[in-house]
């Protein structure tokens, strides 16, 4: 069982900061995910991965989204994307699944995407014939996440919305978890640590070939909309940030990776297609060791993170 522990620590400017730590009280060992079948190659560009073994891809020529089971090669083709209002091109930045299509616990799965030049949210429910645009959610979304029967989205200003998946209530009802707070970073991602939905805040600066990552902060969502997020640590977890899917891994789950670290790629070409690692303890960025790189490549090849 996860326990939330809050401490207060004076900051350098004299104010009091809140440090949130997660403590795991359980004798259960975390099982490693089952290896996926690398002989099965999906068609299309990956726009979403899943630790449950389902990969979401899109065919850029036909604009068809396909759910692909990397374990057995099963495919589910979704309806074509419509041209929504104010969008003149179908661009899908990221996609997530509410539950595995072959799950015995859910009758209907939902796919949520970040869609179009304005980065709005759109959804498809199993059994429907078309997609719906979630206009009330606004636009400019950086990331989306599926967690415990709900779909979350965070926009570039820090607003987090939640869509509770209910097959008997459609279109879905959205509620705002945190208001826009004009965060001080340049990009936001969502991750789940010890059952808590967290925001990973990336800070960037101009480099030789473009913008480079220079720092990270992590904040946990609270139940109080007015409080927003609480800046916290990783409690020895590791976060892997991909372009179409990211994942947080518990301590000692994956050999070779270090806890309290965020592994990421930049798009400026400075890492020459490789990985870099931000250590939350000393706030330093370094290139991973060979053992770390080998494990990261193995995870990327399994399509858990892309």
UniProtKB/TrEMBL annotation:
Residue ranges constituting the KIB1-4 beta-propeller domain according to the UniProt record: 41-275
InterPro entries on file: F-box_BR-signaling, KIB1-4_b-propeller
Name of the molecule in the record: KIB1-4 beta-propeller domain-containing protein
Source organism: Erythroxylum novogranatense
